Amino acid sequence: MLSGFVLFAQSKRDELQPSNMDPAPKSQPPTYHEPRQKNTVPAEQKWSLTQYVDPSDPRFYAKVGLLLGSVLLAMKAFRQMRDPH
């Protein structure tokens, strides 16, 4: 009986505040949402080899030398592997 009295005596002020999970009351007009902008794909940028290769840079020649050296070394090792002697 005491718990019934406590529930009856509880005022509206003690109720929980509405949260965003509660459905909107029917008396309120629907909220306005701005239309979403269409996702536009940017045009593909064409790249050229000159963007990545700079012959005026001395490191370029060092990299080319290392590349050619490793290719020549791999060819020599492959020939030695194939040779039955």
How would you characterize the overall build of this protein?
- The protein is elongated, with a radius of gyration of 38 Å.
- The model has no long low-confidence stretch (mean pLDDT 79).
- With 85 residues, the protein is mainly alpha-helical.
- The protein contains 2 helices and no strands.
- 39% of the residues lie in helices and 0% in strands.
- The longest helix is centred in the C-terminal third of the chain and has 25 residues, at 58-82.
- The protein has a domain at 53-85.
Write a brief structural summary:
With 85 residues, the chain is mainly alpha-helical.
Secondary-structure blueprint of this entry?
Blueprint: H1 2-9, H2 58-82
Fraction in beta strands: under 5%
Low-confidence stretches: none
Helix-residue proportion: 25-40%
Q: Largest sheet at a glance?
A: none
Question: Which assembly state applies to the chains in this document?
Answer: single chain
What structural class results from the helix and strand content?
mainly alpha
Cα-atom Rg, whole angstroms? Answer: 38 Å
Termini gap: 105 Å
Which properties best describe this structure?
85 residues, mainly alpha, 2 helices
